């Protein structure tokens, strides 16, 4: 193993580190575009191998229970993209790093993730057409881009989804994206390095919802 990076070692001497990933496609699906929070497996390996020279990676439960976080690190992965297990799990195995996957229930029920609807509209260059129909329904700051204002807490996520669905009714089908999600019939992979948690049902912006909507 190479020597620790001085900057990383200094960080490890002062604090803990909790890393969050989303998708890990080697080649992201074109329909989801550049707005997808993706880290390719080879980049993931370089990042984690460098960090592992200075940090000791533990499960998220161990990390949360630790009295002193200095030198500890943990990995969480949001949403439930299947590529994490199909394309990147070898990285975690090779480095013996545990990860906690927080799954959206809607992914496993073959529902189309609303943030991927946003990404598809962006990738197809249809933002202007969407805004022509719905811009007045949103609260937004001057210059705030489509991706950001659709998840601004001032805009109720359920209403945003209704507008996205209404717009997409007249667009070419994009439900092909469902194949990228972990499905109920696949089950959850069982491995000593993997733990699971809930990332809510739909991954709506909870602060945008009423209390009643949050509990649904």
N- and C-termini, Cα separation: 49 Å
Helix percent reads 25-40%
Could you spell the SSE succession in H and E letters? HEHEHEHHEHHHHHEH
Predict the CATH topology of the largest domain.
Answer: TIM Barrel
Mean pLDDT: 94
Q: How would the global form be characterised?
A: globular
Work out the radius of gyration: 19 Å
| Integer tally of domains | 2
Low-confidence stretches: none
Biggest sheet architecture: 5 strands, parallel
Category from helices, strands and their pairing: alpha/beta
Tell me the CATH architecture of the largest domain.
Alpha-Beta Barrel
Q: What would CATH call the homologous superfamily of the largest domain?
A: Glycoside hydrolase/deacetylase
Number of helices: 11
Strand elements, count:
5
Which CATH class of the largest domain is shown?
Alpha Beta
How much of the sequence lies in strands comes to 5-15%
Model description:
By secondary structure, this protein is α/β, with parallel strands linked by helices. The protein folds into two domains: 6-109 and 181-204, Glycoside hydrolase/deacetylase (TIM Barrel, Alpha-Beta Barrel); 114-176. The chain contains eleven helices and five strands, in the order H-E-H-E-H-E-H-H-E-H-H-H-H-H-E-H. It has helices spanning 6-14, 41-52, 60-65, 83-86, 89-95, 105-108, 114-123, 127-134, 146-149, 157-168, 211-215; strands at 17-21, 56-57, 72-79, 99-103, 194-198. Strands 1, 2, 3, 4 and 5 form a five-stranded parallel beta sheet that branches. Helix 7 (114-123) crosses helix 10. The radius of gyration is 19 Å and the shape is globular.
